[in-house]
Amino acid sequence: MKLALLALYGGPDQIMGVASGVATVVGVLLMLWNRILVFFSKIMSWFRPAKHEEVVQTSSETTK
Which of 55, 21, 10 is closest to 29 using CA atoms? Predict the structure, then answer.
């Protein structure tokens, strides 16, 4: 057997550590999901153009 193939072996002892780390990150993201969305919506509001209200003239202003 080639030693290069043996180096690519990922046994349960390596995989369980990686899976545990990924599960921890996903769990924290799920717990804080609402705050993450609020944070990104505030950042996105900086880049959106401001909405300008149009001035509506009333009939009394147009008759003067």
Answer: 21
